[in-house]
Amino acid sequence: MANGGNESSDLDLSWDNRWFSSGRMYNGYWLGEFAIPLKSLRYKEGSALWNLKMYRIDSEYGERSVWPQTPRQFPIMNLAYMNKLAWEEPLPKQGGNMVAIPYFSANYSEDHLDGQGIGRGASIGGDAKVGLGPSLNLDLTVNPDFSQVEVDQQVTNLDRFEIFFPERRQFFLENADLFSNFGSQRLRPFFSRRIGVARDEATGQNVQNPIYFGARLSGKMSDDTRVGLLSMQTAKDASIGRPSVNYTVAALQQKVFNRSNIGLIAINKQPIPDQAIQDTLGAFDFNRVLGVDYNLASRDSRWTGKTFFHHSFQPDQPANAFAAGTQMGYGSLRWDLYLTAEWIGENYNPEVGFARRTGYRRIASSDWYSFYPKKGIINRHGPGIDFDILGNPTDGITDWDVNFMYRIAFQNTANFNMRLRKEYVFLTFSFDPTNTDGVELPEGSDYQQNLLIASYTSNLRKKLSVELETRLGDYYNGKRANLAGELNYRIQPYGSISLAVSYNQIRMPEPYSDADLLLIGPRIDLTFSSKLFWTTFIQYNNQIDNMNVNSRFQWRFAPVSDLFVVYTDNYFPDGLVNKNRALVLKMTYWLNL
Length: 593
Known about the structure:
Elements: E1 11-12, E2 21-26, E3 29-34, E4 42-43, E5 49-52, E6 54-58, E7 63-67, E8 83-86, E9 97-111, E10 117-133, E11 136-142, H1 170-173, H2 177-180, E12 187-188, E13 197-200, E14 205-208, E15 211-222, E16 225-234, E17 245-256, E18 260-271, H3 275-281, E19 287-297, E20 303-313, E21 322-331, E22 335-344, E23 354-355, E24 360-369, E25 378-392, E26 396-410, E27 415-426, E28 446-457, E29 464-475, E30 478-491, E31 495-507, E32 515-527, E33 532-541, E34 546-558, E35 561-572, E36 577-588, E37 591-592
Antiparallel strand pairs: 1-4, 2-3, 5-8, 6-7, 9-10, 9-36, 9-37, 10-11, 11-15, 12-23, 13-14, 15-16, 16-17, 17-18, 18-19, 19-20, 20-21, 21-22, 22-24, 24-25, 25-26, 26-27, 27-28, 28-29, 29-30, 30-31, 31-32, 32-33, 33-34, 34-35, 35-36
């Protein structure tokens, strides 16, 4: 059988989540016969060969089978290892493909916190999808509504910097990697959640900012070239001095060598001139970012990495408004080695991106060695060492940590990880270590800490499974004990029930605050049939003095057409005094044109 090393494919499954095939081998190739009509797939006319990979998971016996053979240190869907599917005849020319998805939404709300009272409203809008080629799609949206999107899973915030919450809105998720994979983790020039959110400068809070309309062109121009173009226009909000703003992002990804690529990205945040707002609050300035990334992936996937350089632009352009970095990883049966170096200028300002901090230089490494016992309950185990160092020319080294680690993967899919950490923190600004408006640790103070961090995940094949994590040891000039976990139970075949808990006990010397922070999140997901679904998520968080209830009912009354009923409630936990609540009804309908 031929072993392909090319990641590209003539098949685009972006409009279909499931496809099934059967067939036979002929002269080293797989002759495919698909159980669904070819017209429901996006494929390249005239193509006779597809890159193909198959895998099978037997949950009862904990077995995974993959074809073609893939080295065990890589995920079973690693696309460096593929074979060819050969059609007996070239595929016919595909007709046009266009879909409209209108929606109607009605809502009722009560606000007992900000004095807004009772609100009622209704809206209409919709999306359209146009197939411009075998793997190139145009998506349009007018007055988009995301009321059916599940609320974020809350976390206990003990961080000095902004917390990253992943994108959940469907319009921004399709082909998201074209835009969102530039830069490195927690250092992205583009972060789609910046669109549709505005900052109220009077309160310092983020508020929802409606979107008028938007368009996204994404996909493959050829076997080696992918393109992405996104443009969104948000609404004017005079109450917070916010003009209408246009967000435009253009991305180009060109394959080089066997599996590597070069990516270019341009981001423009441009306000529409509004004299009334400008006279009141001053000019609302543009912000732009240009960047280039080189993404490395060797033919056998042993070597991976990237190198990037991004630069931000704004009025009265300051110096050192750049971000640069390089990452390199090597993976073999025994070794996993990873090295990172970054240099972020103090004036780098990606307003439509995500940068936890700026003005630093960083070097980090994480290295593992693995043993594979021939017998017993352990599948793989081994030690690791990790370090991370940050600093800047003014303060020198501001943060470092070194970790001695050990991990164990069991045959029954359970996992155990442990690390002993020693770390150093120099505060470049004052900070309340409990994030509860207590006395702040002073700017310029520094701390050394010793920690034990451990996690365990049980056999996920069982109906009842558990995930546990703990962190014990020093916390600045005090102590912290953390225990977090999630209990999951599957009610086969109807759904699952889970309970997530996080508890932090923080003890600090006078005059700093002690804290006992508790976060509890029960959740239930039920599937009554192939058309009826119900999800309810409750979150109690005493750090922000809030209990949230989010319940969503979904009825798929026609193919890819849904009726949603979503209820959201927020309370003060003491006495269950209501802050606000909302009830939304939304209906979408899929029209093939």
